C-alpha cells in the first residue's frame, strides 16, 4: 500500500452537484413578478414572451443537449395549438388545464411517430426532412378546413376561467400568472431532465454519437424519447397560444415560426436552458420596439442585432455574460493571490 487513498467518483453525487441551485436563477422569476407589479400595461407582451420561452426550452432540449438541428419544430407548436383549439371550437371542451395537457399530448404523439423516423437521419437529410414535415403539417391543416378553418383560421374558441375563477381578462393579468406558472413547471422539468443520467447521455450523443453507440448506449431510442418530450413541451406552448388568443391560424405551423424559435435560442445561447429566457426576452422586446419606431424597416434592425450576436457572441448573449463574469472573477482571484 502506498498510503494514498484513492477517491472513487460517485456518478449520482456528480449529477446532484450539477443540479444545485444558484441564487442568480431566481432573477428571471423575480423580474417577471416585478413586471406584473410595476408594468401591468405590458402583460400582453409578457404572455407572448413566456410562450416563446416555453417553445424555446422545447427546442433547447433536442438542439442544445441532443445536437438535433430542426427546421420544422413549429409542427408540434401548431399541433398543440390546433388540438386545443379544435377541442373547444368543435367539441366544447373549454376547461383550460385539461385542454392544455390534451393539446400537448397530441403534439407528443405526433412527435413520437415522426421522431422514430427522423432520428435515424442527421445533417442535411435531417434538416430537409424536418422542413418537409413542417410544410406537410401546414398543408394538412389547410386542406382539412372543416376542422381547422384552413386559410381563414380557427375561431370560436372559448376557454373557461382557470379553476372556474380566473378569466382571460383584457389586461391579461390572470393569463400572465397562468403562463408564468406553466413556464416555471416546464423549466423545472427540463432542468431535472438535463441534469439526470438521461440528460448527460444526450450530451454524450451530441458530442460523439459513435462512441455512445460503442459503449452500448441506445442512441436512437434516447433521441426519440428526447424528441417526444420536446414535442410535448412545444405542444404546451402552442396550447397556451390558442387559449390566450382564442384563435389559431396557419401561422402557428409556418417555417417563419420554426426559424424564429431557432433564432431566439441561438441568440440567447444553446445548451443552457436560461438561454431560452434571454433570447426570448431580447428578441421580442427588440422586435416590438423596432416595429414601433421603424414600421417599414424593423426587420433590418433585428437582422443587424442577430449578425452582431453571431459574429461576436458565438455562445449567445448568455454565454457572453458568463464569459464576462468569469473574466472578472479571474481578475479578482489574481489580485487576492
Task: List the keywords.
single chain, 337 residues, mainly alpha, 15 helices, globular, disordered N terminus
Report on the structure:
This protein has about 325 residues and is mainly alpha-helical. The chain has a domain at about 40-255. It contains 15 helices and no strands.
Q: How is this structure best summarized?
A:
The protein is mostly helical and 337 residues long. Helix content is 72%, strand content 0%.
How are the SSEs ordered, and which strands pair?
Blueprint: H1 11-18, H2 27-38, H3 43-63, H4 74-91, H5 96-118, H6 123-143, H7 145-148, H8 173-194, H9 197-207, H10 209-214, H11 219-245, H12 255-268, H13 274-293, H14 298-312, H15 316-336
Helix pairs in contact: 3-8, 3-11, 3-12, 3-13, 4-5, 4-6, 4-11, 5-11, 9-11, 12-13, 12-15, 13-14, 13-15
Rg from C-alpha positions?
21 Å
- What structural class should be given to the helix and strand makeup? mainly alpha
The overall average pLDDT, rounded, is 86
- Number of distinct helices: 15
Outline the biggest β-sheet: none
Please give the alpha-carbon distance between the first and last residues.
36 Å
Report the uncertain regions. 1-6
Strand coverage percent: under 5%
Number of strands: 0
